[in-house]
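Contributing new records

If you add data, match the layout below exactly. Sequence lines come first and carry their own label; structure lines follow with theirs. Keep one chain per record. Anything else will be rejected by the validation script.
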Amino acid sequence: MDKKCFHCGQEIVSEEVNFDDKVFCCNGCKTVYEILSQNHLNNFYELNKQAGIKPDGDKNYFEFLDTPEIFNKIIDYSEDGTTLVTLKIPVIHCTSCVWLLESLKNINSKILYSTVHFTNKTVQIAYKSSTYKLSELANFLSSLGYKPIINLETAEKKKPKNVDRTLIIKIGIAGFAFGNVMLLAFPEFLEGNKDVWLEQYNQLFRVLMFLLSLPVVLYCASDYYKSAWSALRYKRLNLDMPIVIGIFALFFRSCYEAYWGISNGYFDSLCGLLFFMLLGKFFQQRTYKSLAFDRDYKSFYPIAVTKIDPDNQQKNILISKLKIGDRILIRNGEIIPADAILIKGEAFIDNSFITGESHLIEKKSGQKIFAGGKQRGTMLELEIIKEVNQSYLTRLWNNEAFKKENSILDTITNSVSKYFVFVILIITLISGCYWYFIEKNTSQMYQVITAILIVACPCALALSVPFTLGNIMRILGRNKFYVKDSTTVEKMSKVNHIVFDKTGTLTMNKANHIAYEGKPLTVAELEELKAILKNSNHPLSRSLYEYLDCPDKSLLVRNYKEIIGKGIEANVNGNTYKIGSSSFVKYKGEPIQETSVFISINGENIGRYIFKNQYRKYVPEVVKKISLKNKISLLSGDNNSEEEFLKQLFPTSTILKFNQSPQDKLEYIEKLQKKGDLVMMVGDGLNDAGALKQSNVGVAIADDINSFTPSSDAILDGSRITSLSSYLKISKIAIRIVYICFMISFFYNIIGLSFAVSGRLKPLVAAILMPVSSITIVFISTILTQISGYIVFKKDLKS
């Protein structure tokens, strides 16, 4: 019995290395085993027997990666001894690969974390660049058998192409072979042809057809073989299994008939089959790329940033409008939207969205700040040095740290596809036995088997979910509701309890009626107060900043601290200010009922600003619509001074809770979920970050400030909160459309199977019908979603 390597599973031909009572084919495999064993990662071999990859024997130390020019082009981020880089690793092929690559931090202490993108065959790694070179990281991956591919295209960070060039080459080869094989096979289709010359060279034509079909079968269909083989290694069936069986059946039967002179076989049908299947794959890739492009560059979130004009005037603009050289203001808690140079201010940057580490990095004037960092402290003035990359912000928003449970519908799709393939194989076996044993027609049997396997490919079934929900995401984006991914649409369709925050969510930030009560403030104190408030994103701070009638002198603010849910502490011109709740400034007077912001200067309580909130227009109508099919709760950090008014605004069944801290809100949502409720939390994204992440669907309200909130599942433009019931309605319609597409796909397969089983469907026709079915599903999905979106939002806008 041939010995096999314990790590990679390959047969040992020459060299044999023994270690730890195990046999390896080379020292590379033994080294990988040692690394895994020393770091207690032996589960790698339990996840998938013989799943290891043989390390590359060529020693390539990637020294060129340490050249500063190349290093700066390849890396995504490098700051404070931490570097983030995304590397292309084509050999990623199974779950054990993913598991091992995401466990790198357990193997190598210099690696902070690693995340695999299986579809793109990439791994994003954060490592300690202060003590570890990029070339050392690349060599380390190579030693594990995962050699990264780094070429000029990778280094230049070019925009990804819309279509894989390899696929285009395969289509070209298949098309060339299809046309020439049809030409060579044509004479045999002429009945009664007795041409001596054709009969003399008939066998030569068959040999040429065989040779032309070889590159099609061996190269053009290679992706189907790889996919099917990967599934078999895990003892599973996938969508490509029936196709591979059909290709082999058609090819070997053609070889048999051509060799024995029975006929010219089915080489023409085989080449045509793969040509049309690859065209269908081309179409799918183009459509998927279109969806991805739309998400990254066109569906801009309602994130605005304050731009400073040359005349020193400030205005809010979308980040998509930013250009190199523009100057912007970044307040406490705001995301830096693009690489920039610090012009003014004390920068303490939190890069946890990028690296996972919450360590604050201090920046001095003139230093570079990377996009994706969050300012913790006073307001900054920055100059943009690189264009905004919306796809980069999208990746931050989709960071693994902020992901929730897996998609329910995705599981259904996978299960249906799996059983669907199993049923198709049973039907194929029964049909083959019928034509072979009962009809005694071997030639027809092969055609029937091939036609069944091709026409019944559940590609259309698998496309139903991504295309339907992708179109719904576009419609929601056009209506200023920006969802993170298709899973959010699915979860929205199942929500039965809506939890609202009050301040900044139901109220309008710039429309509060404000009155002052207390010791009169001097002009200097008002200017200092305004300078402090300018740094905050809290709705009450923004309202009070706009209300104060004094010049904005951009005074230097020191020791700025903003405590979520409590208030602000800072120092201006030697005076220490506390601005916030009564408990925060240690107010000792009578209990206060109204919503108020208290002011203390150098420990002395000066007075308070009293807010009478103005609620967003049409809130009562929105609440009424939502309450028809959902339970509603209101959580407010303010006191209960407006309780009686809110009771008139909300249905009697609404649960109202006041004086709620951020932790109280999170715990309340947890209690609802334990009762079985599926909760949507609608908040401002500042005090409500924990509650947004805990909820099944977290929706962050954005007005005209930078409200990039990675813990949320969706961002809603504040002006469109009136459309909330429509967003919920269209998500439910989306799921119905998915099931309609499922039924159409099943109906198509039943009709196709009935023709194929009876022998009335040629394999070539089946190959043409397969991409046609996919196109049909995409067309129906697009039409239904567009019509539904038009009806729902047109009716909503009118109301």
